[in-house]
Design brief:
four-stranded antiparallel sheet; TIM Barrel; 2 domains; six-stranded parallel sheet; alpha/beta; elongated; 11 helices
Length: 286
Amino acid sequence: MLTPRTEHLIDLALEEDAGLGDVTSRAIFPAGHRSRAYISAGQDLVVCGSEIAARVFARVDSALQVKLLVSDGARARTGVRIMDIAGPTAALLTAERTALNFLQRLSGVATQARKYAAAVVGTDVRIVDTRKTTPGFRALEKYAVRCGGCFNHRSSLGEHILIKDNHIAAAGSLDKAVRLARAAAPHLAKIEVEAKTLAEVRQAVRAAADVILLDNMSPTKVREAITVIAGAALVEVSGGVRYETLRSYALPGVDVISIGALTHSAPAADLSLTLIAPATPRRARR
């Protein structure tokens, strides 16, 4: 995930936090002062963002050496070391918060995703994310969702056609919206239509939608909609699905459940950096 966009995000984060320097660390520690540190898990979690955190340390000072101990996507129990860092103390402490911000956010999303993925084990349902992501962080948060064992919905408006209620209202009808979209869409594009009622489900089936999104329906209504669709389209369930009710929506005939909470409500994972007794300081050059 060390793409040009990620590098830019790292630059923005470091400029935000250390653009004026770290006056505390620079005041206390001379240039030759070196330390060792480690980042560890304060809870059971799924690791994500370790290479990005390592890159943060390197961007602050190339003399900082990082050893990754746990790979992205792997579980880590409370107390497990995620990475070791060694090098100039001032630089290490300058990079600490920014590195942890990336690591905590992405590990939080991955941990949340693993929880949701586990809830539908034994079914044929895929749990996918939405576009409800932190601005600028979408690619990273969707990567974290994959690390947690869930899947990605579209990453941008340009990936495939999803006709929602406001599109239908502005077009005048569901059928017209589908016809216009199909006429303009690339030949490989799928047409997905959001349906809030069984009447709209029937309209979407008649319009030959490839995917029908059942929006804010109860499990009972979802069952009825599946009967109406009868295999004519892929079935996505979205809206109103909570972790506590997830299993009741993972019904035969449901292909995908999309959940914004994978990203927009994922709590930051508990990770912290601990400084070990400093190494013997080098003599400053005269």
